[in-house]
């Protein structure tokens, strides 16, 4: 009696994780607006325009975090444009990624409530560092040995994805370093991300 050939594992579909991802990202981006709140105008007896100006830092934090979440979502979307299947380890990488994406509204409110606090800034930076690192791990796991992507996928496209996903964790490390010297300048490190990602070196032909 002959030995039956072992079936190839084709992996799990990605539709469920993509649906969950879109929901978590949309919810996190929406929650960010809750980090902006005006003081009681009756208690301050100042015009609304002054109250709005007094919250300029929180508006900046809101805009920054919204754009950063959008960048993470965009890169994640680009990754899943070529990731054809998933497995249990890959699913858990994405679940942990979403867990820290959902934490961004809290860390954003922290730097708004404790401005110029090194501890608050470092917490926010560590949050972004973990998100960026898990985004890198998501791509590295999927493409190593063409595990979850097409076998004919070009190596240059894989390498450009590695470079692109390293930008956020490196920017977060720079922000952490700045937080130790002057927390007020820490968040400016993230303004480099869209500038760096605009360079062709961090894109490849076929990226969406």
UniProtKB/TrEMBL annotation:
This is DUF1211 domain-containing protein. GO terms for cellular component: membrane. It comes from candidate division WOR-1 bacterium RIFOXYC12_FULL_54_18. It is a multi-pass membrane protein. It is found in: Membrane. The chain crosses the membrane at residues 20-39, 59-77, 89-110, 122-144, 165-181. It catalyses: K(+)(in) = K(+)(out). Pfam families: TMEM175. GO terms for molecular function: potassium channel activity; proton channel activity. Coiled coil: none annotated. Belongs to the TMEM175 family. It comes from the Bacteria. Keywords: Ion channel, Ion transport, Membrane, Potassium, Potassium channel, Potassium transport, Transmembrane, Transmembrane helix, Transport. The keyword Ligase does not apply.
